[in-house]
Amino acid sequence: MQKTKPESEPLHRLESFMGDLTRRAALVSGATALWCWPRQDRSALPGAQATFRLPFQAPSGQTPFRADAFIDHEPPLPYAHCPSICELSNGRMVCVWYAGSREGVRDVSIWLAESQALRQPADDGQEISWGKPRIAIDRRTAMNDLDRFVNKVGNSVIFTAADGRLWLVYVTIAVGGWSGSSLNACSSIDNGKTWSRSQRLTLSPFFNISELVRSAPVILESGEVGLPIYHECVGKFPEMLWLRPEGDKGERLVASKSRMAGGRSLLQPAVVPIDGRHALAFLRNHSDRRRIGLQHSANGGQSWSTPVETPLANADASIAVVRLSGGQLLLAFNNASHTRDNLCLALAPDGIGDWQLIATLENAPGGCFAYPYMVQDSQGIVQLVYAWQMKRIRHVAVNEAWILAQPRKPLA
Questions:
Q1: Where do the structural domains in the chain lie, given as residue ranges?
Q2: CA 178 to CA 283: how far, in whole Å?
Q3: Which residue has the higher pLDDT, 391 or 252?
Q4: Within 10 A of 220 (CB to CB), how many other CB atoms are there?
Q5: What is the spatial distance between Cα 161 and Cα 256, in angstroms, rounded to a whole number?
Q6: What percent of the chain has pLDDT over 90?
Q7: Does the pTM exceed 0.90?
Q8: Is residue 191 a contact partner of residue 94, using CB atoms and an 8 Å limit?
Q9: What's residue 321's pLDDT?
Q10: What is the tens place of the pLDDT at every residue in 9-40?
Q11: Taking phi first (over 0 means left), then psi (-120 to 50 degrees means alpha), and beta for anything else, what does residue 223 get?
Q12: Residue 300: CB partners within 8 Å, gap ≥ 6?
């Protein structure tokens, strides 16, 4: 009887290695599935009495005002996307976005431009003038600052903290696509002319990846910042990033995050305070249902209700929202389920229902008008920026009088 040959040692080692790798992959997959599963929110960084700092109250008797401008590269770049805007401590506006030959390549940089302050009372003849764009962060700067490999940079959000320091939170990717992203921050005390060395934000003791920024932050009375972020590895779900300045001059950030919801399809939360303790979050919907998601918080953003769908269409696209001084909510969104060829403004008395279409800013079949970002400045002017045909950044500024004067059409 012929004896069976023993397995070769190399083959045995390979099978053992593959078995171990499979077990590890199963463990990681299981842990990831549990991480993405809807669950009770974890405690956030702010204290139990976290209170939102509400925006300014617009003066009465304003004349309706609207101004538009493009922020252009000279010479033009093939691709521009994902803008963010905020008011500087000197009253001027600053905008950041990323641009290059196309999305997700090494030549993409985060660019910055500054505009003059608009006069109030404003008039329709007033123009917006933007300065020449300049690079704020590129991959080489990020690599030098972070002492780690950076393959590309991406989404960024800019904001002024309560102490007047300007902060830039931005995405870097070492390997892979957006699911391999990390968040980083740098700051400026001269309104963006120079920047501190970037720090990588540690949000997880494990991989510390797959966190992205998109929407405008909320400021707490304590000075802490709540920045909506989202996770995009296996599952897609919204989170809040809580940032607290530390150091002798507040030059570094302590970061903590809390989950808003689990799941696989809701992302890019746009958070708007309703009063000191209550807030709503409007969510991009990656599922086939194509409706904006909605959540509510009653404790300063520390925990959130289970997401529900609104009647508002969503083309798996980013949205923006602000609260006006009268309590109405203004929403910037693509009013379609499958295309981004329009960009509209809608108004609601409380954000829950009775949405009214008040303006169609863009409408060009086959076009792409994406990623609106909207804030209200200290004079009550709503400042909106978005990617225009993915080639330019467009800026629209309106006051509350203009918003309330627009004819209204009910949305389904």
A1: 51-410
A2: 18
A3: 391
A4: 23
A5: 17
A6: 74
A7: no
A8: yes
A9: 99
A10: 433 433 443 344 344 444 444 444 444 444 44
A11: left
A12: 46, 49, 50, 51, 52, 220, 276, 277, 279
Residues forming a β-bridge with 409: 357
* Mean pLDDT of the region 260-274: 96
Instruction: Fold for 51-410, please state it.
Output: Neuraminidase (2.120.10)
Tokens representing residue 180 in the block: 């391999």
Q: What is the pLDDT of residues 331-355, one digit of tens each?
A: 999 999 999 999 999 999 988 889 9
Q: What pairing do the DSSP bridges indicate for beta strands 93-100 and 79-87?
A: antiparallel
The CA-atom distances, in angstroms, between 345 and each of 210, 302, 380, 404 are: 31, 29, 17, 12
Task: Determine the Cα–Cα distance for residues 113 and 136; give it in Å rounded to an integer.
Answer: 9
Query: Which residue has 């030098």 as its token pair?
Result: 144
